[in-house]
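JOB MANIFEST
job_type = single_chain_structure
chain_count = 1
residues = 281
[input]
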Amino acid sequence: MDDSRETKKVVGTRRLKEPMPKPASLAAALSMGGLNVVVIDLDPQGNASTALGVEHIDNAGIYEVLMGQSTIAQVAQKVPGFPSLECVSSNTSLAQAEIELVPMVAREMRLKEAIETLIADRAAQSLSIDYIFIDCPPSLGLLTINAFTAAKEVLIPIQCEYYSLEGLSQLLKTFELVKKRLNPTLKLSTFVLTMYNNTNLANDVANEIRKHYPNELIDIPIPRTVRVSEAPGFKQTVMTYDPLSPGAIAYMSVARQLAERGKPFDSNVVSINYKREGEIA
């Protein structure tokens, strides 16, 4: 068959101006509501750490925990301005963790064991943790599997773009595999729509999620706004950068619904962000 259409030449790639959505603003919103929250930044790029304004270059963080060199309690940092919010940061060493975990015994359980130790230690001090957010890269390697194995619930912030739906199918396959083999109580509990604008494409993506996951969706779209994009550049979440902006108000509304869905409990919530298959947020 003669195809007379010309193939458009790929001239290069560019970095997106807007960072991928992270759970930092949602964690901050829950903390502002009086809940004790811990964010574990399992993404080697460290965007959640940046948004929360904690050190994450040369300091000890989640890498040292996975390697058995530190406990979570030893490396957790208080987030400035949030008395009940802590962050276990990423650092430059985390990028090599995928390789170093391979020969380890019970490699998929490293994070789960560390979190159980943290919860037990806090309970011994009569201290509670209401939510633990595990922010991991979209690549489905050992870091993500560790997160799925450690978590009780999976929260998926999904961008209102076509590639998000494409990546979601692969993510759900990994979810089902980990649920079957490693964590039978793991629950897909929540979808949050992010980077929403009132276009046909965004509405199509939103409607697909509404159709297939009506019970899991918190149907308060996070708008694509300049303030949400600017905040990480100032090492803040939008909750403190511009608390009256539409993005901050939407995050607070989502956090309230998330908290109202169940009673306060020691919950490990893994957060996965997808845009393009294989692209690290």
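[summary]
The longest strand covers residues 187-194.
Residues 2-21, 273-281 have pLDDT under 50 and may be disordered.
exit_status = 0
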